[in-house]
Amino acid sequence: MPVNVKKTVRKIDRAVRKGNWDAVRGITQSMHPSEIASLIQASSQKEKHLILEALDVEVASEVYFQLNPEERVSILKLMGETSLIAMAEEMESDDAADFLGELAEDVAKKVLEAMDPEEREEVTPLLKYPQDSAGGIMQTEVLKSPHDATSRETIELIRQIEEEDEDDVEDLHMVYVVNETGRLVGRVFPLKLSTAAPDSPLWTIMDPVEITVIPEMDQEEVARIFRKYDEVSLPVVDNAGVLLGRITADDILDVISEEAGEDIYKLGGITGEGLHPVHTSIYDNVRLRAPWIMLALAGELVLAIIIMQKFQTTLENFIVLAALLPLVMATGGNVGVQTNTITVRTIAAGDFFKSQIKDLLLGELKVGLVLGIISGILGSLIGLLLNTAEADVTRLFLVIFAGIVGATLTTSFLGVAGPLVLNRLKMDPAVSSGPFLVTFNDIFGSAFYLFLGAALL
Amino acid sequence: MPVNVKKTVRKIDRAVRKGNWDAVRGITQSMHPSEIASLIQASSQKEKHLILEALDVEVASEVYFQLNPEERVSILKLMGETSLIAMAEEMESDDAADFLGELAEDVAKKVLEAMDPEEREEVTPLLKYPQDSAGGIMQTEVLKSPHDATSRETIELIRQIEEEDEDDVEDLHMVYVVNETGRLVGRVFPLKLSTAAPDSPLWTIMDPVEITVIPEMDQEEVARIFRKYDEVSLPVVDNAGVLLGRITADDILDVISEEAGEDIYKLGGITGEGLHPVHTSIYDNVRLRAPWIMLALAGELVLAIIIMQKFQTTLENFIVLAALLPLVMATGGNVGVQTNTITVRTIAAGDFFKSQIKDLLLGELKVGLVLGIISGILGSLIGLLLNTAEADVTRLFLVIFAGIVGATLTTSFLGVAGPLVLNRLKMDPAVSSGPFLVTFNDIFGSAFYLFLGAALL
User: Which among B231, B327, B360 has the least Cβ separation from residue A297?
Assistant: First the structure.
């Protein structure tokens, strides 16, 4: 990262305004694509696409994917078709497919038609897979060689490809071995290829392929497989076992980070992806955050109505119950959020069995009970000290204690059950189960506590 | 994964009780290490180490790292020293270092001393780095070759290593080129090695090494570099540039997942790592979760005292304020948790500049204001409808409205400032900033709201 971002931005800004594109290239020459992307993001809105277009197309197509997803779309709209075509041709197939997916439909169609036929052929099969499937993240550029080819012949094949496009070969970490029908039958590590006797056919030096993925598989599942089997690259095959492409671990880094970010956002009560704290507009920001705020608001309004309709007299007579209401709500909510977090994370990690659900539920209920008892005793004792009404001490203790324990037990149950039920319904366990839980606790936990107060005091 | 886990566990259970170790090996033979680990985790406590010891040592050492970290320690305690030594020798250096780190100190010392000298030499330098540093996750097994060696000589070198230990070579994705003093000067992709003319010296075919990491670097920072530069493997060098080891993307998959999990847990108010919902004891579970529950409890107790001391009369006269207290608290808390989540995530992604802090803060305050105004209007209107006391309508509206807007503005500010300050203090931005924020909001948000009530009504 250059020492002074602001200064560099100003320098580029001056060059752009003068139309001095050579200067832009010069300033960014020794920078990494992700650094250039940071600079573009720090530049003024009207100049972003001009900077990108000024770059060499190889650099531009790398910089593009380092830009914030929100930015990309607005930059694309301003770019000329010639630049778009050049960039799409320069990209690897998986990137080109994503790139086309981010263009307006009619523009994407034009760009695809204008592309070099060979490049078009590589990218077209990818367009049919969703972006978050194995097919959507795979590259079709694979090194494949027939099982009866010798090591020497395979090296010759690689050399030919290398001459055509040097960059491609370096990033291919594996030689895949296929039979006559294109079915994947084995793989050869490049190092093994170089040390093998030149005349040995591949089938004598290849390793079996133990793990493959199909293009329809969800990228989260693919990430799980990568983690489980510690692989650096995995082949993608169709149902007949024909090799379609490959996915490398560095693609999966982004998948894992993305999915974790989505879970974090959902647990924090933010729907929708791609919210950027600085680049997203206030309007979109509110739109993405309001649903859960409004949902909770509705819940709390229901609670307010219940309190006014049913428990007004109780509260007026025993104002200490009102003073401790926040405590009852917070304790139940906090224990529930913890349990919910643990359950969502456990499901995401995919490392527990159905047979363990009972253990999980019982364990969380026990922990919730212990935390509830400790909090309940402390809360009730302070409640007794603060009480100014003429309430029976034992009864007041009981109301507060039972209110707190009841809340923690309920939220412990919901914290396990909520995500598990969502998961069983094929919904995302993280999707607002936390926010729902807190609101539910606020209503029912408070109502139970005040009901006890009304009944016993 | 075998179709029926329970059935397989029962089969293994029978074999273990009969001491039929061949049968254990037979049952697990065609299974992947992570599947065997799942089986061990589903087995009874007393049998786990017996199953692990019954496996072939290569399999056992792979299975070991697929076990839940909590489980490992308890299993290790029951294992014989001979098995421990054999496993340590079998592992790659980074795994062996982690393994030794998980043993009791005296046992680790004994095992290290008893290890094969060559293996010991590989693992010893790693023991000095923290587990979560680049040094702690790197492997010392690297393929290095002098810069003046020819491609043919290098292949011959690899062939020799291959004959000694076939497995090692396959996993080495890069040939690192070093000068006379061991300094890293370039890298050669294996495929390039095989296609180069046999007599070309490495320095003529090598690529420059643009990115290296030092062993002291935090693993989170290493993960960020991997993501930024889309690399599959990176070399680790000391301050003088001498090659020490390498890190591959598949190691980073676990790092990213781990770190994201820690952030999720911290945001959910759970301190400490490695909490497993089923395997962690109730005692440890409570111990890891109680701190934040107790902290919040203390905060809510302070609030209860404030309410009883300062606002008792106000509440008794205007019970509607008590009925809406949960709403004020929840709205402020929810908006704050969203902002906090966004800020923590933004810091973790490392993709924004210091110069953007102002934009971030202003943006969040604007969003908080809009959400506060909407919630404030709705909340106040319902408050007016529910009110049973003889309060001035305008004033009551103002109290509720300003209470809600005040709370959302405060928590929006804290949601940005909290994580940023923690980060500046070199502390983890996620560390309970959410829980702190909610408690802070409960106390001061409520106090402000009730103060307005006392002053205006």
Answer: B327
CA distance B282 to chain A (A): 6
A300/B268 Cβ within 8 A:
no
Classify the C-alpha dihedral B27-B29-B31-B35 as positive or negative. Answer: positive
Whether B75 and B63 have beta carbons less than 8 Å apart is answered as: no
Classify burial at B348, counting beta carbons within 10 Å of its beta carbon; exposed 0-12, middle 13-18, buried 19 or more: buried
End-to-end CA distance of chain A: 67
The ranges assigned to domains in chain A are: 5-128, 143-248, 282-456
Residue B380 to residues A291, B313, B410, B412, Cα–Cα distance (Å) = 19, 21, 19, 21
Q: What is the pLDDT of residues A166-223, one digit of tens each?
A: 556 667 788 999 999 999 999 998 888 888 889 999 999 999 998 999 999 999 889 9
Gyration radius of chain B's alpha carbons: 30
The pLDDT assigned to B453 comes to 93
**ipTM of the predicted structure?**
0.78
Of A316, A342, A439, the CB nearest to B277: A342
Q: Provide the CATH topology of domain A143-248.
A: CBS-domain (3.10.580)
B5-130 fold: MgtE N-terminal fold (1.25.60)
Give me B266's structure tokens.
């911290």
A330-341 core/surface letters (b: 16 or more CB in 10 A; e: else): bbbbbbbbbbbb
Kindly report, residue by residue over B52-90, the tens digit of the pLDDT.
Answer: 989 998 889 888 888 877 778 888 888 888 889 999 998
Sites in chain A below the pLDDT cut of 50:
1-3
pLDDT at B306: 92
Chain A residues close to B286, C-beta within 8 Å: 367, 370-371
Beta strand pairing call for A243-248 and A233-237: antiparallel
* C-beta of residue B123 within 8 angstroms of C-beta of residue B93: yes
Which of B161, B172, B230 would best serve as a mutation to test chain A binding (most A beta carbons within 10 A)?
B230
Cross-chain CB nearest to A195 (options B159, B299, B349): B159
Q: What is the pLDDT of residues A296-332, one digit of tens each?
A: 899 999 999 999 999 999 998 899 999 999 999 999 9
Query: How close A107 comes to chain B (CA, Å)?
Result: 28
What is the bridge-based pairing of β-strands B233-237 and B243-248? antiparallel
* CATH assignment, A282-456: 1.10.357.20
Q: CA of B80 to nearest chain A CA: how many angstroms apart?
A: 27
